[in-house]
Amino acid sequence: MFGFLINPSKFNKLADIILRPLVFITSIILIMGLFLVYVSPLDYQQGLTVKIMYIHVPSAWLALLTYSIMTFYSILCLAFKIPFGFIINKAVAPIGATFTLLCLVSGSLWGKPMWGTWWVWDARLTSVAIMFLIYVIIIFLSQTFENREVREKTIAIFILIGSINLPIIKFSVDWWNTLHQPASISKLSSPSIDVSMLQPLIVMTIAFSLVGLIIAILRIKAEIIIRKNH
Amino acid sequence: MFFIIKIFVFFRRESKLFFTNITDLFSNIVFFFLSIFIFVFALGTDEQLLKTIGVGIIWSLLLLSSILSLRKFYEEDFNNGILVIIHMSGISYELLVFLKIISHFLFVQLPFLISLPIVSIFFNLPTNEVYNLIITFFIGSLILSCLGSISASMNLLNKTNFSLGGIVVLLFSIPLIIFSVGINNAESELIYLINLLIGIALIFLGIAPWSSAAFIKLAISNK
Q1: Where are the domains of chain A?
Q2: Could you read off the pLDDT of A197-219 as tens digits, one per residue?
Q3: In total, how many domains does chain B have?
Q4: Is B169 part of the contact surface with chain A (CB cutoff 8 Å)?
Q5: Which of A63, A95, A112, B221 has the most Cβ atoms closer than 10 angstroms to its Cβ?
């Protein structure tokens, strides 16, 4: 049932079936999310700038999610010798880098009117910037080595070492006194955010993940074709 | 018993190599001193300013000068085939990496300890900060050796992009820098921060042999 997660040909088959409906659903959800963002209420303190949140938070979540997926597949392909993980790692890294950059830039644009600076040396901000550098190094690594096996395994080991950063990002707002606010939405407690703002946030998160998924599917398919021709 | 003799022979070989190439080490230390002089020329000789930023500058330049010696970590032994010979004598690659890290720590990083008190005279550092600097460097150089091992073994088959090894060392040395420079203006007890540094050192001592050995095996099978 979950064979498409580790088998390239099954993945290709499934991708061919779901790609068109996925694009259709994604565009509907994205338009709906943008409309919900448009009609969502203004914050009584922050005014219009609160709408940056609907870009900032989903891209931050997706940046973390992408790195977690890469870590998972690195373990899978190193421990169980599943080559599909290498394809995923190479295809997904630029997507994660883009989302991290989007998160940093939108956060910077949000920080200027709210905190008064573009950038503070705060634990959360710094650790996310380090994650962006890790993504960039992964992209560099994928263009460095001549031998394919060396390249793929090096990237996988590097991803595993770099995953130390993930818990640091997650818990940085709890461990250190930071300017960045702690997580508003968590699984264990009720969210500290109003429902009228939570709805567009969740819809935008789903829309962002679907956009990321579509790009990932296209990139993975291209990577499989390159792999077959060599 | 036989095993201990093998390790002893390994260290004797390393020390011989060290004493034949001792000018290399001296040039590293000269690089360190010169870069500190250049930093002072660039900032001006305001005594108060130098006192406040002294430890940070010393640490970052120590990091940069330890990157200089990265290329000789595994490369010569790899090209000679010594790594395979040592492995065939019954030492696993993980243990080999561990011994290499220890010998790099003893022969390349520890000589910098002599230069630290002299450098702190230039910056007029107070005595307790000099003690802190020496303690943190003693632990931190072990972490630097581990990171150097990871990046040097990663770059064994890399023939195009040489600066990548330095980038990797700089990236993972961020926690080291945070805790070892922050030790001077910490409010809590000194011993907690030192324990934290020892913890980081043990983490990297656990990660480095595993990952370096994986890289070395990969490089040897694809040579």
Answers
A1: 7-229
A2: 888 888 999 999 999 999 999 99
A3: 1
A4: no
A5: A63
